[in-house]
Every structure is written in structure tokens, then in C-alpha cells.
UniProtKB/TrEMBL annotation:
Record keyword Transmembrane helix present: no
This protein's name: Homoserine kinase
Organism of origin: Oceanithermus profundus (strain DSM 14977 / NBRC 100410 / VKM B-2274 / 506)
Compartment(s) where it occurs, according to its Swiss-Prot or TrEMBL record: Cytoplasm
Gene3D superfamilies, per database record: 3.30.230.10, GHMP kinase, C-terminal domain
Amino acid sequence: MERVYVPATLANLGSGFDALGVALALYLEAEAEPAESDRFHYSGEGYVPDTPDNLVHEAFRAAFARAGEAAPPVEIRLFNPIPLARGLGSSAAARVAGAALADRLLDGRLGREGVFAVATELEGHPDNVAPAVFGGFQLALAQPLTHVPLAQPDGLRFVVAVPGQPLATAQARAALPAQVPHADARYNLARAALWAAALAQGRLELLAEAARDRLHQPYRLELMPGAAEALEAARAAGALAAFVAGAGPSVAALTDAAASEVVRALADYAGPEGRLLTLSIGGGLTWKAT
Ligand SMILES: Nc1ncnc2c1ncn2[C@@H]1O[C@H](COP(=O)(O)OP(=O)(O)O)[C@@H](O)[C@H]1O
Ligand SMILES: N[C@@H](CCOP(=O)(O)O)C(=O)O
């Protein structure tokens, strides 16, 4: 039996739309063993039907196709603690898990790079997939497929306010305009680059500005009542940076040591049906044979 572990991720980091992301220490676990026909057993967050028509099996088959082989029937069991459709990269984790399970059964023939390629092609943007596969902070491009790790100062944590209601990534992408003003593109370019420079030099005081964004958050915040105020409250409470988690609806705040003020600032946004997660930065995909 092959087992893989894949982290949740926060994509964009505010300004790095479709380009920057970070892994969180919250891991999906998936295992696969040969079977007579495809089977799927889901447990964990939310509801995903136990049918082989799912993101994990789809990525499993795509990975075999990339290796030039027909996928064998397989039974996949999954425990997923990543909230679904909340902006924490559950779909990317599912796809990475499927491709990684295939890679294990192919004796590592695709490797991490192949898993990254398969999952990015299916997901459509690499900013969740790169940190899910390689861990930590990552800069990623889909064309040409590229990933570069960013520096990771010690002791950082994310406080993530996860509301009770989902927002599908497809819906949050549909809210974006086809064109943006040149001034907004300029605004984001400098700030996305600032993430890399500030992390590299440990200049954490620059991250609040680095996370500010005009390319997607202003449009998505319209779909997320209370989120703009929550981001302001987190900044006022001393967060190093605050931004929409992926495509939303969760919001994330980066902190170093004492995060209790930031947790309090985000509590209202999570609300009684949601929750607050405090997570350290995660490593990438791992696996073991059991
Ligand atoms: N482990 C999984 N197995 C099968 N489908 C999944 C799994 N995780 C997520 N999904 C599907 O992906 C959807 C969420 O993807 P998406 O809208 O991109 O949000 P996010 O990736 O931010 O959680 C879920 O509603 C579900 O349909
Ligand atoms: N860059 C993408 C990231 C989506 O992340 P998710 O975790 O919400 O799926 C986007 O902003 O659409």
C-alpha cells in the first residue's frame, strides 16, 4: 500500500495572483492499493461522494497517461482535514495526492516535477500546486512550468478565519474583470516582488505592504461580506500581513510570536459556523509505503 501526505496551501499571498503560494501544516492523507475496479473512500471535511469520478482518481489517471501507461484499477482511501471550497487549496491537494499515488505505483518515474506538472495542468494555476508539492513559500509559473522556493524566516504562523459557507474557486474567478487598469498591474508587480525580497532579507515589516493587492481582492471582497473589515482588523491587531486566502472566502493573517490579538480580530469573520485555524508553514508532499 502506498500513502501520501499533501499540505493545504494559501495561494496568491494577496499580490501574487496565480504566482505566489505557501504550504500550511495541515495535511491530507491518501492511500492506494491495487483493486479489481476503481474505488474511492472519502472521510474528513465536508462531503465528497464515494465514487471513482473525483479529482483524485482523475489525477491518478492523468499521471499514468503522462508516463505512457494505462492506469490500473485502484482503491483510494482519503482523509482530508482541509476545508472544501474555502481558499485553502483542497482541490490542488486532491490532485497532487492522485498524481503522487500514481507516481508511487510507477516507482517514482514522474518524480516531484512530474507530479507538479500533472496537477498544475489539471488545476489550471500553479500557485497552490507548487507549495503543495515542494513546501514552504513558492513562486510558480504555469508556462513555462517553473517553481522557485522563497526564503522562509523562522517562527511564522498563519491565522486563517474559515467561514461556514463555501465559495467555489470557479465562482470567485468569474468575478474578476477581463482587463485591469495599467496602474493596478503596476501596483501589484512591485508588491509581489516585494514578498520575495522581504522574505529573503528577513524584513518582515515590509510584508504588510507586499500583501496588498488590486488585481483580485477588491472584486472578490464584494462576494465576502465582512472580509474587508476583518483584514483591516487583523492589520490593526499587529498582523505582519493580511490577505484573502486563495480565491476566498477565508482570510489569512501572517503573525510571528503572539497571535492572540490577531485571532481575536478575525473571530467575528469566522462566525459561529466557521472556525479559526492557527497553522505553521508546511512542508511539501511526502510519502511512505505501508
Ligand atoms: N479530496 C477531494 N476529493 C475529491 N474532490 C475534492 C477533494 N477536495 C476538494 N475536492 C473538490 O474540489 C472542490 C473545491 O475546490 P475549489 O473550489 O478549487 O476550492 P479550494 O481548492 O479552495 O478548496 C470541492 O468542492 C470538491 O468538489
Ligand atoms: N490563484 C488562484 C488560487 C485559488 O486558490 P483556492 O485555494 O481558492 O483554490 C485564484 O486566486 O483563483
